[in-house]
Amino acid sequence: MTTLATGGRRTLRRPPDAVVLPIVVLLLLAAVAVSIAVGPRTLTFDDLLAALTAPTGTEADLIVRDVRLPRTFVGIAAGSALAVAGVIMQTLTRNPLAEPGLLGVNAGASFAVAIAIVVLRIGEFGATMWFAFLGAAVASALVAVIGGVGRGASIGRLTLTGVAIGAVLSAATAALSLIDPHAYQSLRLWGAGALGGRSLDAAVLTLLVVAVGLVLVVLIAPGLGLLALGEDTARALGGRIGIARLGGFLAIVVLCGAATAAAGPIAFVGLLVPHALRAVFGPDTRRLLIYSALVGPILLLLADVLCGMLIAPRSIPVGVMTAFLGAPVLVALVLSRRVQAEGAPS
């Protein structure tokens, strides 16, 4: 990114996709390779290659195919889903602080999953994913209705409503987990946000559901791009506002529901990635969506690897690491004069 002087005004030259996109794809492939190769048990390149291409049931095969591969797939799916959902939420609400965790979406999905596990005794992943979708949808609707509909867009009201609903649902989830001692352990680990603990089938299912959500995002991307210019401008340009909003809402539910069901309520990915990319690529919503889908997994996979290295041989949940990374960004945004002055993503 370079700075140019044009007629006394300083403008930024954004990096071209032809240069940046291949680099980002290579970084994602490198993050995937590191996620599969690095772990408590050291494996050789031959072990990894044999496990991926011609498994024979050795211990190395089991580690790769039953532990590291599902973990990596969940990281790819959750990273893409949360980062893209963050861009959509910031665009729809014109709130630079919006992200699935801050607006209560993840908390809604978590509460619904807790009900499924503790109250209804449902442990099968495919079933709990539906509960996550329902919880994410209900929480999103509550925040939208209480925080803004009929009263005009309000950054403060939306944010406070999301924080309040998220806090209530998180407290209810914690209370449910304490009712059943057997469910407490699994909910405690899942609630902290972790990529491990899923089977290969569950991880592949998560990838497929997130892929469906991303296809929906591709379809509504032009409408989201117009909405980023402001509702009045979007209408003047012929944008179908209602369809874009409904599609965005459905995409958020699908993406956040799948990510939360698989990895737990991981916070700040949807805040950190879009803002970092916006500083590089500017306000183009379509570019933000594309690069968020690629950079989100890079962040989450590398954070997970770092979690495994800090206190090896033990590991800390990746949600703890993303909170450490995202909290300073949130504080900086809250204190930023730009947030107060613009009230919308740049």
From TrEMBL:
Annotated localization: Cell membrane
Matches recorded under SUPFAM superfamilies: ABC transporter involved in vitamin B12 uptake, BtuC
Membrane-crossing residue ranges in chain numbering: 18-38, 72-89, 101-122, 128-146, 158-179, 202-229, 249-277, 289-311, 318-336
InterPro entries: ABC_BtuC-like, ABC_transptr_permease_BtuC
Keywords assigned: Cell membrane, Membrane, Transmembrane, Transmembrane helix, Transport
Topology of the protein relative to the lipid bilayer: Multi-pass membrane protein
Gene3D superfamilies given in the database record: ABC transporter involved in vitamin B12 uptake, BtuC
PANTHER family, A to Z: FE(3+) DICITRATE TRANSPORT SYSTEM PERMEASE PROTEIN FECC-RELATED, FERRIC ENTEROBACTIN TRANSPORT SYSTEM PERMEASE PROTEIN
Family: Belongs to the binding-protein-dependent transport system permease family. FecCD subfamily.
Entry protein name: Iron ABC transporter permease
Organism: Microbacterium croceum
